[in-house]
Design brief:
Blueprint (H helix, E strand, L loop, with lengths): L1 E2 L2 E10 L2 E6 L4 E6 L2 H14 L10 E4 L3 E5 L8 H16 L15 E4 L2 E4 L6 H19 L5 H12 L1 H4 L7 E3 L8 E4 L2 E4 L5 E3 L1 H10 L5 H11 L10 H16 L4 H12 L3
Antiparallel strand pairs: 1-2, 2-3, 3-4, 4-6, 5-6, 7-8, 9-12, 10-11
Protein name: Fructosamine kinase family protein
Pfam families: Fructosamin_kin (PF03881)
Organism: Pseudonocardia yunnanensis
C-alpha cells in the first residue's frame, strides 16, 4: 500500500477502520477507510476545528473517496495541568462560533455522520427547534421503528421535544462543536489534549460538555472548572446536562440497541423536571 505517494512499511489497527501507518520516509500517519461522505465530513470537520488557541486537532494530510490520512498523535496521560488547558482551549474553540445551529463546516456535506449513524446538518435560527427536529426526533423515530423503544418510552422523549423552548435555558449563539465529544475522541498526548473523529457542526456548547460527561472523561471536574473560568456557563447548565445527553444516548440506542434505552428515557425524565 502507498500513502501520500510513499510505501507503507508497517501498519497497526487502531479501531474504527483506522490504522497507524509507518511510512518508508519515516513519517507516522493515521489512515482511515470509510464511506466517501463520511470521509468528506470528517476532513471538513477537522479543518474547521483547527483554530488558533483552540484544542489541538490532527492535520488532514490527504483525503479522497476511499481514505483519509491525518497526522498521528502520540499518547500521553491526562494530568491536571493538561486538563485545565483543555478546558480553556475548548472554550476558545466553541467561542470561534458557527454561522447557525446545524451549520455544516465549510465544504462539509449536509449529509454527515456521527459514528456509523447518518446525521443531517442544515442551518436553523433556533436551537430548541433545531435540536428537536434534526437531533432528537430522527433517532427517536429510528429507534422506535426498530423496536428498541416502547411507545410509552417514546412518548416521554416526545414530551421533551414539545417543551424544549421552556427547557433550553438562556439563549446562546451557535458554538463551533466537535459534535461527538465522548472521552474516546479526546486523545491525551505529552503536549496535552487533541480532538479526533469529529461530527462537527454549529450547536449549543453545553452539548459538547454533556457528551464529555456521558462516558467519563478523565479529570472532568478540572476541565469544566477551567472552561467555566474562561467562558462562564449560563446558570443551570449542570441541570441541563441530561437534556443535552439525550441526543447521543438516542444515537447509541440506534447503533447498539435497547441496552441504552433506559438511559435515554431517564435523561428525558430528568430534562422534563427542568420546567
Amino acid at each position: 500500500m502507498n500513502v501520500l505517494g510513499v510505501v507503507v512499511r508497517t501498519s497497526t489497527p487502531l479501531g474504527g477502520g483506522a490504522v497507524r501507518a509507518e511510512l518508508a520516509d519515516g513519517r507516522t500517519v493515521v489512515v482511515k477507510n470509510a464511506e466517501e461522505s463520511s470521509l468528506a465530513a470528517e476532513a471538513a470537520g477537522l479543518r474547521w476545528l483547527r483554530v488558533p488557541g483552540g484544542t489541538s486537532v490532527p492535520a488532514v494530510l490527504d483525503v479522497d473517496r476511499q481514505r483519509l490520512v491525518t497526522e498521528f498523535v502520540p499518547r500521553g496521560s491526562p494530568g491536571a495541568g493538561a486538563a485545565a488547558a483543555f478546558g480553556r482551549s475548548l472554550a476558545h474553540l466553541h467561542g470561534s462560533g458557527a454561522p447557525a445551529f446545524g451549520a455544516a463546516p465549510p465544504d462539509g456535506p449536509s449529509a454527515a455522520w456521527i459514528g456509523r449513524a447518518p446525521m443531517r446538518n442544515e442551518p436553523s435560527p433556533s436551537w430548541p427547534e433545531w435540536y428537536a427536529a434534526d437531533r432528537v426526533l430522527p433517532y427517536l423515530r429510528a429507534a422506535s421503528d426498530a423496536g428498541e423503544l416502547t411507545g410509552e418510552e417514546a412518548a416521554v422523549i416526545e414530551r421533551v421535544c414539545d417543551r424544549l423552548p421552556a427547557l433550553a435555558g438562556p439563549a446562546e449563539p451557535p458554538a463551533r462543536l466537535h459534535g461527538d465529544l465522548w472521552s474516546g475522541n479526546v486523545l491525551w498526548s505529552p503536549g496535552g489534549a487533541w480532538l479526533i473523529d469529529p461530527a462537527a457542526h454549529g450547536g449549543h456548547r453545553e452539548t459538547d460538555l454533556a457528551m464529555l460527561a456521558l462516558f467519563g472523561c478523565p479529570q472532568l471536574d478540572t476541565v469544566l472548572r477551567a472552561y467555566d473560568e474562561a467562558a462562564p456557563l449560563a446558570a443551570g447548565w449542570r441541570e441541563r446536562v441530561p437534556l443535552h445527553q439525550l441526543f447521543p444516548l438516542l444515537v447509541h440506542v440506534v447503533l447498539f440497541g435497547r441496552g441504552y434505552a433506559g438511559q435515554a428515557v431517564a435523561a428525558a425524565r430528568a430534562a422534563l423536571r427542568l420546567g
